[in-house]
Amino acid sequence: MNVLELSEQEIIRRNSLNEMRAMGIDPYPAAEYVTNAFSTDIKAEFKEDETEPRKVSVAGRMMSRRVMGKASFIELQDSKGRIQIYITRDDICPDENKDLYNIVFKRLLDLGDFIGIEGYVFKTQMGEISIHAKKLTVLSKSLKPLPIVKYKDGVAYDKFEDPELRYRQRYVDLIVNEGVKETFEKRAIVVKTLRAALDEAGYTEVETPILQSIPGGASARPFITHHNSLDMDLYLRIATELYLKRLIVGGFEGVYEIGKNFRNEGMDKNHNPEFTCMELYVQYKDYNWMMSFTEKLLERICIAVNGSTDSIIDGKTISFKAPYRRLPILEAIKEKTGYDLNDKTEEEIRQVCKELKMEEIDETMGKGKLIDEIFGEFCEGTYIQPTFITDYPVEMSPLTKMHRSKPGLTERFELMVNGKELANAYSELNDPIDQEERFKEQMKLADKGDDEAMIIDQDFLRALQYGMPPTSGIGIGIDRLVMLMTGKPYIQEVLFFPQMRPEKITPKDSAAKFMELGIAEEWVPAIQKAGYNLVSDMKDVNPQKLHQDICGINKKYKLELTNPTVDEVAGWISKI
Questions:
Q1: What topology does CATH give the domain 3-146?
Q2: pLDDT given for residue 572 in this prediction
Q3: Coil, strand, or helix at residue 287?
Q4: pTM
């Protein structure tokens, strides 16, 4: 890396790195460093009445340092927390050579470096459980400084709180911001508890293709890629549904998959183009059974994560204690808008949309999409406590079994929590003739311009023709579930690496453009370091200022270039 691309701190750290190596210290040793304790456990297990101090070996990042002559205190951060280390020169340097303390520890080590400490546990006069170091080992040198928060007169400086930086540099966010790691540990508990409940119920975890020839199982816009060997377009899956149902046809009692789905749609605080979903399918069940199973499952997960059936998000206490309210979707719309959409035609519903002054309606939308838009605008956001919205019109549910007693409706529910959909479930359609007709209706919508309409999957229809038993299925959005369980209002807070726009790169002219002005190539990085990234940036600059800027950089960074004269600099500018 060009030295001009580094900050002053980075240059100092690299010089320290080289100095360590010159002293015979490997800043990145390969050997295993054996630890036998973690910071939190040391504190929890400390006993003042022990006859022999506990000997420990720990490792982690040095997060703070207070040097007081021959003795110092540091704060060490390991994977579980932080602990204070007491270091004295003569303890870690028992021989005559004191370089490890005087040079390495005091000058060459920096905050953020990894070190190993062997010593014993004790309590300081201030009552803080600490480790008295007897041996110090350099484990890894950090070359970039951490944005460690500093306080002065009650004001915090150098906070790492810009969401753009936090999400893009999650590794730094995890190091310096309290609570971030805990969120992802809770996410792991959510998935672990979910998996345990499904395994205990006797269902089989499976894996299905991510690259699919037909993007089926949901109404969504897919990502498209190309397979060179087969010379064919493929799609990143938008759902796992159709493949999991094939396995029910094949004889599994129940199957589930926890994995990534991909939808080529907008990004906001509730949506990421790739997201984690759990889909479950169980034979001989219906959507009523699935509602009962789901509310018990979510109650169990909430207790595992939070120790109770309550979770707090956006200042609201949400109770996941079963049972949950059940409300048919058309009743919900009537309740919130005053309009009864039962038995209404597409044109009549379109007129309702006009009366409700809905602006996002267009001619490509069929009856199902119109109802979905009305529910989304006037109803969805009002359901804070877990609520099952049930009995969707057939036009909204191309993969769902017709309702056993309500013509024109299907046996489907969506679970709404905190104003957003968390789960979607059906009594699965297993009539292959009916399914084919539903697919054809979807293709008519596609012909009208609906790019989220489903494509006919002939192989899935063939599987249904071999016979699928009565089945209920559900999909639960894991990311949204974690948001609810951890009280996070943004999906980016529960994804390690959410999708981000490309980083902005400062435009720079090539060296050749600068050389056209008579500038030597080796001077171009210095000119751009001074802030003149484009040739045009130098157009109206005072030659003496430009001369002063670049000569200062030459001296500061020890580039050892021959400085140009002011007249030469003026000559460059005159040619622009």
A1: OB fold (Dihydrolipoamide Acetyltransferase, E2P) (2.40.50)
A2: 96
A3: helix
A4: 0.90
